[in-house]
Specification:
With about 180 residues, the protein is of the alpha+beta class. It has 4 helices and 7 strands; from the N terminus they run E-H-H-E-E-E-E-H-E-E-H.
């Protein structure tokens, strides 16, 4: 699906990042913030209110830019899902890093949910891992190619279940 980066292990089959559609709003916020801030800064006379109004407008624009454009982009960049033959590793965070490893032997089913019609058109959605027993489901929101990802994860889950029960394993998944 995506090239393997240096952050993942050697036995990683493939790596998935959230869908690019999560960057559309931050990009629109970037352009809108720069346009509105520039317009308001140009309208402000340099001597207005003892010269503090124009820097205040620029600082407010910078704060909006960081909150609505930079932070979501860093969150997208810091989220990485790597799939190995026996586990799924979820890495989140840029400043503080959280790593969660889910063995496929503890997963019973893999579901796909599409949040909207746009998700279905773009092939994006949420992958839900249903664990064995009474544990909470793990949701992986906003992933690309979710139907293909679901089928690949199901093969790996069935293989882990077969190894756990000593049943014959299904064939290997097709390489991405």
């Amino acid at each position: 699906m995506f090239p393997i980066t240096a952050e993942v292990d050697d036995d990683t089959l493939f790596v998935v990042r959230p869908h690019w559609m999560h960057l559309v709003r931050p990009a629109l916020a970037l352009f809108a913030t720069v346009a509105v801030t520039g317009f308001l800064a140009a309208l402000t006379p340099p001597d207005a209110a003892a010269g503090w109004l124009q820097p205040a407008v620029l600082l407010a624009g910078l704060a909006v830019l960081i909150r609505w454009s930079v932070v979501p982009w860093l969150a997208w960049l810091g989220t990485l899902y790597s799939v190995a033959a026996d586990r799924l590793t979820v890495r989140t965070g840029t400043v503080t890093r959280e790593i969660r490893v889910i063995p496929f032997a503890r997963v019973e089913d893999v579901l796909v949910e599409h949040e909207s019609f746009a998700d279905r058109v773009l092939g994006a959605g949420t992958v839900v891992l249903v664990p064995v027993g009474d544990r909470d489901q793990l949701e992986l929101p906003g992933l690309p190619r979710v139907v293909r990802l679901q089928s690949e994860l199901l093969v790996l889950v069935r293989r882990a279940t077969a190894e756990r029960g000593k049943q014959p394993a299904p064939p290997d998944p097709e390489p991405l």
